[in-house]
């Protein structure tokens, strides 16, 4: 499953741009606060490398604090391609694509008399 995530990572930005969906490639810093957590971060880094995720960086605690001075950590994992997206705009873009392909989108299908609902 992870290879599909890697392949789709860049495609999603093309989709956002084509549909005018606001987003920010802000990155993410995952921090370890003790030696046990630092070992877990190393395992995550190994696993992501096996899954062909090529943009994660394992950082020392000093380097992690340099990026986020308000954090205290013993190690960190930097994911620069993590983003935030305006989910309402994304939902509307997907809805518009679905409707353009002939789908009928209903906001509250359970409230429709055409849709029986039994408990």
Characterise the protein shown here.
The chain contains 4 helices and 5 strands, in the order H-E-E-H-E-H-E-E-H. The chain is α+β, with helices and mostly antiparallel strands and 119 residues long. The longest helix has 18 residues, at 2-19.
Strand content: 15-25%
Specify the overall morphology. Answer: elongated
Percent helix: 40-55%
Q: For the residues shown, what is the average pLDDT? A: 87
Major pleated sheet: 3 strands, antiparallel
Assembly of the depicted chains: single chain
Distance N to C terminus: 35 Å
**Count of strand segments:** 5
Instruction: Give the low-pLDDT segments.
Output: none
Cα-atom radius of gyration: 20 Å
Keywords: FAD, Flavoprotein, Oxidoreductase, Plasmid
Family: Belongs to the L2HGDH family.
GO molecular function: (S)-2-hydroxyglutarate dehydrogenase activity
Protein name: FAD-dependent oxidoreductase
